[in-house]
Design brief:
This protein has 249 residues and is mostly helical. It is built from ten helices and no strands.
Amino acid sequence: MRKHWLLIQTTLRRIISSQENASIASSLNNLAAFYDQQGRYAEAEAMYKRSLSIKERLLGPSHRDTASCVSNLGLLYLHKKDYDKAESFYKRALNIRQATLGPSHPLVAAEMSHLAELYRIEKKYDKAEPLLEKAMSLYEKKLGINNLDAAMCMLNLGCLYRDEGKLKKAEPLFRRTLGVRERLLGPTHPETLTALKDYSGLLRKLGREKEAKDLDAKFKALKEQSEKEAKTGKQNLKLKTRAVERNLD
């Protein structure tokens, strides 16, 4: 009976310890992402590595949840322009996704898109293009094109075609990306405005100056509207905060 109880206690401690460690790993990962966005790369790298170490110990180096942290490290090294390390981590994340989720899962498409974007930045277009085209095909089959992840992949593929000088192939992808973001995010969302600006620039490269100017005017008007909405939102937040503070007094 005593041995049985000790076994239960040991098992419970392991479960509690695992939950705490998993929670810590998640918190470290979130903090690292914040540091990465702030350009505090050394701190982000340390946090990501600690998070990865915990996940590898708890789940194993090839677990699908470990892949998220591996991919985040790839993004960090991309931001640091340490392209060799970025490629290594992106490839590892892709291999884990394929092994654990199968070859046609949307997360596999996401990792393909990440790796391809790295190759595009490095101007390794012969490596980037087949990966992005495959990723786009997977997104369309699994999620459809009316999806933000698919739209991001579509934009990356459009940017690749643009960089390769394939402007006519790029144009419908820029246009479709803009349409998806307008529908799902609204016309004044920052990502929609970015897509609008990108499309305007592409049309100008194609010699469609009048259309480009029309989009520039639309961008300016929506940008002003977006800034007004942001200002109003901040004012409303201040009023709500003051109301809460008064209720606490």
